[in-house]
Design a protein that fits this description.
This protein is mainly alpha-helical. The protein has helices at 2-26, 43-49, 52-84, 88-103, 106-124, 130-155, 160-166, 171-200, 203-208, 216-224, 230-264.
């Protein structure tokens, strides 16, 4: 039974990662072939970084991902603090409400946000661009920040905030000195998850971006509609490695926090 489970796990891992492995291998191919490996070269990576359209889209992506993840972390942390101080029934209902954007299909979120921005643009005379894109990404990022922070409150001593105030701290100082360090691993995890989601989001970005604020996933989609270039393989490889680094960092932070919590306990 144990051998069967290991074989099943191996098959699943191959099924999940074989396409990515093939993409990475052919990003170093000397020709444009996607079936025959003719040689090894870094030319497609060099051409990638000389492609103005891709570099512009990459810059847009990092601007949007950074702005959205920072703002989402601040808003999500404040929301988590407020939710934690609620009574049981309102707290449960609010948490269920914040989980809806996570399970809601992205196509529904993207279209609804687009219609909302169209409604306001007709009355406030603004155009689709970085503002609409960042607001849209904040909408999908905040629930993930809350989801990462709330377990930290459940692990924390509920009397810690009041104890800090009894020792002479004001409300703000008590939060920053006593509460924030306890929930910081959740805050960092929420930030990294928000950044990852914003980095590779396509559906919501497609409906809420403007002509001058297109992100990398939208540019890649436009390029693949014509013909798949090895530059896309190189770009996808870089994105995959970046996401892996972010996820590994997130897991390291969570593991260290768990170990630290275990030692304290």
């Amino acid at each position: 039974m144990k051998k069967l489970s290991k074989a099943y796990l191996a098959i699943m891992m191959i099924f999940l990662y074989a396409p990515i492995f093939v993409l990475i291998v052919f990003s170093f191919n000397t020709t444009k072939s996607h079936s025959v490996m003719s040689g090894f070269t870094f030319d497609w990576y060099v051409k990638l970084f000389h492609n103005e359209l891709i570099m512009h889209s990459l810059l847009n992506t990092f601007i949007v991902a950074t702005a959205a993840s920072v703002l989402s972390t601040v808003l999500g942390t404040a929301a988590a603090v407020g939710i934690n101080n609620m009574k049981k029934l309102p707290k449960t209902l609010t948490l269920q409400g914040t989980n809806i954007p996570i399970v809601n299909p992205e196509i529904v979120t993207g279209v609804s946000l687009m219609l909302l921005f169209v409604f306001f643009s007709a009355r406030m005379h603004f155009e689709f661009g970085f503002v609409t894109l960042i607001i849209a990404h904040i909408t999908i990022d905040v629930p993930y920040v809350i989801l990462n922070i709330m377990p930290r409150f459940r692990q924390m001593d509920p009397n810690l905030y009041e104890a800090a105030q009894d020792l002479g701290c004001g409300p703000a100082k008590a939060f920053f000195k006593a509460v924030l360090p306890q929930i910081m691993p959740g805050v960092l995890s929420g930030f990294l998850m928000s950044f990852t989601i914003s980095l590779d989001d396509f559906v919501v970005s497609y409906f809420t971006s403007g002509a001058t604020s297109q992100t990398l996933p939208i540019t890649i989609y436009s390029m693949t509609r014509r013909k798949i270039s090895p530059e896309i393989n190189a770009l996808s490889t870089i994105i995959f490695l970046a996401v892996v680094v972010v996820l590994v960092s997130k897991n390291i932070i969570e593991r260290r926090a768990a170990v630290k919590g275990g030692i304290k306990g």
